[in-house]
Amino acid sequence: SVDSATQLTLQSDIFTATGQRYSIYQPRILVAFQNNDNIYAELLRLLDGTDCGGTITIYDTASVAKYPVAISDNNGSAFVIYEVGVSIYGNKVSATGTVSGPTVIAGTGTIIDVVSDGANGIYVLYENGGNVYLTRRNINIVNMWNITVAGTAAVETDSVIILDSSNNPIVAYSSNGTYSSNGNIYISKFNPATGAAIYSSQIVHSLVYYTTNSDTRKSYISIVSDNNGGVIVSWIDSRYYYPLGYTIHATYVDSSGARSGAVWDADGGDGTPPNDYDGIQIGILNSYSSTEPLFVMVNYNDTLPWNPFIIWIDYRTPTDSAIYYNTVEHD
Predict the structure, then answer these.
(1) What does the alpha-carbon distance between residue 53 and residue 152 come to, in Å, rounded to a whole number?
(2) What is the Cα 61 distance to its own chain's centre?
(3) CA–CA gap between residue 70 and residue 43 (Å, rounded)
(4) Helix, strand, or coil here: 200?
């Protein structure tokens, strides 16, 4: 196979000595989608967007299927993960459109996210009954391990997963706040070979909850690797809800799960709680509505460690929203 969009011409040796013919494939992608409660896919050529064949049927039986996620296995085929009723299933689709499976990934659950494991498999982060679980599947969707990330039955599904610079899976998640207690943002890192926790449920930040406002303090967590062993975690914060509305805050978590770094010291104090490393302010959204906050964080490579680049929808102009961004020079 050829992993570029360059047109190729075979000048000679079209056949091998044993009469086998070479085939040259243009790069292609798999697009999975839901239609009439079934799951389908299309193979498209990257060069010109044309279809490589007919529509591929992933699932078309009696039960309602939804929320498909397609991801490469880094070996020429793709995974398609989706929900059927209350269960989570997975199939493999080859480069020529051959479907294998399905495999049951979770008898009960809803998909939060699916990411590559950095090799030929995947991680599936999912929720069931307020708890968050993580499973690793190999190239054939065979279970390697399945663990409970958060089992308090009070965890929101705004959980996220990434791989750090050593391909260790890291999950950040939040617990629900109430009028009498604050919710928290937690972070855990796991051994990719066994699923054992390298560190578990370290508190990133305690989400302030205001009794004068009935909005639940959802955190809209985002997380990126700094490509140097640590991660940056960002979230929607309400500590300055009066008078500023919602804000975006972020902090750094090192390879051991500890918050650190002079740039990330929220108050310039002595490095002790409650304010130090509790999140520096990235941007003010100028919004008081829980339905409006929206932001995304990515990383960019200038020098190690990589820095975060944070983009959000801003409502400072009364007549319209706008897109703003900010960066942090990570230390």
Answers:
(1) 47
(2) 29
(3) 11
(4) strand
Burial class of residue 45, CB neighbours in 10 A (0-12, 13-18, 19+): middle
Q: How many whole angstroms separate alpha carbon 142 and alpha carbon 153?
A: 27
Q: Which residues contact 48 (CB under 8 A, 6 or more apart)?
A: none
| Per-residue pLDDT reduced to its tens digit, 268-298 | 665 565 556 778 889 998 888 777 788 899 9
User: What confidence tens digit (pLDDT) does each residue in 108-119 have?
Assistant: 999 999 999 999
Question: 243: helix, coil or strand?
Answer: helix
CB 118 within 8 A of CB 166: no
Take residue 327 and report the two structure tokens written for it.
Answer: 């960066």
Q: By C-alpha distance, which of 219, 220, 153 is closest to 182? A: 219
For the whole prediction, is pTM greater than 0.90? no
**∠ CA 152-155-157 to the nearest 5 degrees?**
145
Rg over alpha carbons for the chain, rounded to the nearest Å, is: 23
User: Are residues 122 and 135 in contact, defined by beta-carbon separation less than 8 angstroms?
Assistant: no
Alpha-carbon separation of residue 112 from 3, 45, 160, 173, 307 (angstroms): 30, 29, 8, 11, 26
Cα distance between residue 207 and residue 219, in whole Å: 8
Report which listed range, 19-33, 46-60, 223-237, is most confident.
Answer: 223-237
Strand order from edge to edge, sheet including 169-174: 160-163, 169-174, 183-190, 197-207
